[in-house]
Amino acid sequence: MTRRLTVLGNAGWDLPLRLPALPRAGETLLGERLADSPGGKGLNQAVIAARAGAEVLFLAPLGDDREGAALRAALAAEPLTFEPLPSPHRTDLSVLCVAPDGGNLIVSTNACADGVGVGEAEAAIARLRAGDALLMQCGLGAAPTLAAARLGVARGARVLLNAAPLRWDIRSLLPLLEALILNEVEAEAATGCADAASAAACLRAAGARRVIVTLGSAGALHADAAGISRQPAPVVAVRDTTGAGDVFCGVFAAALLAGHPDPMAPAQRAAAWSVGREGCFAAFPPAAVLAGMLGR
After folding, report:
1. What is residue 279's predicted lDDT score, i.e. its pLDDT?
2. What are the CB-based long-range contacts (under 8 Å, 24+) for 67-70?
3. Neighbouring residues of 32: CB distance < 8 A, sequence distance ≥ 6
4. How many whole angstroms separate alpha carbon 87 and alpha carbon 225?
5. What gap in Å lies between CA 12 and CA 62, rounded to an integer?
6. Phi, psi (5° rounding) for residue 23?
7. Radius of gyration over alpha carbons of the chain, in Å?
8. Across the strands, what pairs with 4?
9. What integer pLDDT is reported at residue 81 of this predicted model?
10. What is the 3-class SS of the chain, one letter each residue?
11. CB-side exposure of 31: number of CA atoms within 13 Å?
12. Cβ count within 10 A of residue 167
């Protein structure tokens, strides 16, 4: 039986802007509007995991509006199964500000994602089977995310969480997690530890079986029962870092589900490939590129 990756998360429409610098408080800047595209951490990670070869079921709330229709059309072209959760809210939007050095600033709405309740989340993932994986982020509320994680564990699935955006306390989720992925800013916010290795150790001690702290160009830390190790990032010329974390999470989840001996390695290669290109969704590696990175 094929193991399936269920992604329960958010989906939105991205409005990217190229700016001469990231704005400061009270500052007005003139920039260039780039092509609109699908977005949202849940959507991004589901698309990447599917392109990386996983059998993906993606579940996310969408509004009955123009952006929701555009997202349905875009996802129909991807190698995944998308089941939208109906919402009375407008589809969420994100404004992506990108600086010349590739740094970014993102502002998003979240009413649509926050409208998902506990019962809706549990019903959405009711088809999880033993050996499957459930990938979530913090785009939905704390209560439905925790309820889905508990049900996933009860069904024998491996639960993965990308703790972004870190907007609620994740401590109750940690003992349920096969893997926790977060960046160094999120790791410090979650633990109070400025040192990434100390933060990873703290999150492991709180129950997560595997903790990965991404460090941008400095690579990533991996903590599990065997200890803490650091893996360097491939050296690339950076054009735009938007979405690199989602690429990492999607490839990692697909590689883990496929039994890859080192899921972090292709995840880092894929993220590095994406930051060398402009845009978020437009910079995601295609399936053929990911196949080579995964040795398929």
Report:
1. 81
2. 67/12, 67/13, 67/91, 67/93, 70/13, 70/38
3. 17, 18
4. 41
5. 8
6. -70, 145
7. 18
8. 55
9. 98
10. CCCEEEEECCCEEEEEEECCCCCCCCCCCCCEECCCEEECHHHHHHHHHHHCCCEEEEEEEECCCHHHHHHHHHHHCCCCEEEEEECCCCCEEEEEEECCCCCEEEEECCHHHHCCCHHHHHHHCCCCCCCCEEEEECCCCHHHHHHHHHHHHHCCCEEEEECCCCCCCCHHHHHHCCEEEEEHHHHHHHHCCCCHHHHHHHHHHCCCCCEEEECHHHCEEEEECCEEEEECCCCCCCCCCCCHHHHHHHHHHHHHHCCCCCCHHHHHHHHHHHHCCCCCHHHCCCHHHHHHHCCC
11. 20
12. 14
Structure tokens at 143: 């209560």
User: Are 36 and 19 within 8 A, CB to CB?
Assistant: no
Q: In what order do the strands lie in the sheet with 179-183?
A: 81-86, 55-62, 4-8, 133-137, 158-162, 179-183, 211-214, 220-224, 227-231
CB-based burial label for 227 (10 Å; 0-12, 13-18, 19+): exposed
Q: Which residue has the tokens 């150790």?
A: 201
pLDDT at residue 255 greater than cutoff 80: yes
Tell me whether strands 133-137 and 158-162 are parallel, antiparallel or unpaired. Answer: parallel
Once rounded to an integer, what is the mean pLDDT over residues 102-116? 91
Picking from 36, 34, 43, the residue whose alpha carbon sits closest to that of residue 66 is 36
**Which amino acid would we find at residue 99?**
A
Question: How deeply is 287 buried, as exposed, middle or buried, from its count of CB atoms within 10 A (0-12, 13-18, 19+)?
Answer: middle
Among 1-10, 38-47, 66-75, 177-186, the least confident range = 1-10
Tokens 């990938």, residue located:
135
- Which amino acids are annotated catalytic? 246
Structure tokens, 251: 């490839």
The confidence score (pLDDT) of residue 180 equals 98
Q: What are the tokens at 171?
A: 């401590």
